[in-house]
Design a protein that fits this description.
Strand order of the largest sheet: 1-2
Radius of gyration: 18 Å
Low-confidence stretches: 200-206, 220-225
Largest sheet: 2 strands, parallel
Order of helices and strands: EHHHHHHEHHHH
Mean pLDDT: 89
Number of helices: 10
Shape: globular
Length: 225
Amino acid sequence: VVRVLLLKAADSIADCRNYGEQFPELVAGRRRSRLMSRLETPWSICDLQDVVQQRPRKRKFAAVEACKLRLKDGFYDEEDTWHFRHDVAKQAEDEILKTIRRTARLRYGDSLKNGDILLVLAAGWNVSGDNYSSLDSAGKAFLRAELVAAAELCALNGHRVSAFRDKMHELLRRNRGSHKCFLRKSVHKIRSQKLRARGAGCTRLRSAAGRARVSEHLSELFSRI
């Protein structure tokens, strides 16, 4: 079984705190969907950076407060405020993944210890300024496609690996051509898909090696959507 979490879209880089939200279209698009809003992490990357820098904070999240990394200058520098500093990038990425894992354990309990796979969706910022309601000159609406794809994957939360694999292959196919098919989908109308009867479909992956192979396959597929 695959469990889904979305990394929060808002407050994802330092400039969001200094100059206001830098990805308003993506944030607004996520908020149109109850499904995505429910599965987003309650904390942002900037919330995690506040803990790393030991800055005063109004909101505290147990999964974030557990972070032990301390960096006086945080994740970003003044020259490149959109990407992690090269000297701390690996540490920053590791801490985000650890915090997501703690968040998943709080949300899904022991199911992750019993063979379930955690699928983390952390994408969309690079298309925040792209078309949402109409096609561009190349017949694409990448922001709409990104949001529909994320919502449709969220709709499968709790389903078997095979359902995610089939959905990702379908999304790849839809992405190759005109994005009219995405424009016809209303993000706010995408709902959770009913679970099939237990035992239907693929067998449960019990070995760690099997789960790792499937996780790699899902990651590879999603990176191509």
